[in-house]
Amino acid sequence: MEKDQKEVGKKMAVWAAVGAVIAIPVPFIGPVIGAAAGAGLAYLQAKKKS
Is the residue at 7 inside a domain? Predict the structure, then answer.
């Protein structure tokens, strides 16, 4: 695994956690979808950089 891939993975994990925590109080979204959205956002930001 390359260094860049590890960085992207770490950022995706952090943003997934943030998305899950933010989505907890929203009943129709939930933490799973919030985590997926957060990870997707981090992935898109990393992809845009490269």
Answer: no
Is 5 a domain residue? no
| pLDDT interval class at 23 (50, 70, 90) | confident
**Residue 26 · residue 7 · CB < 8 Å:** no
H or E segment and range at residue 5: helix 3-23
Which DSSP string corresponds to 11-29?
Answer: HHHHHHHHHHHHHTT-TTT
Contact 17, 35 (CB under 8 A): yes
Give the predicted TM-score (pTM) of the model.
0.77
25 inside domain: yes
Tokens of 33: 């979808």
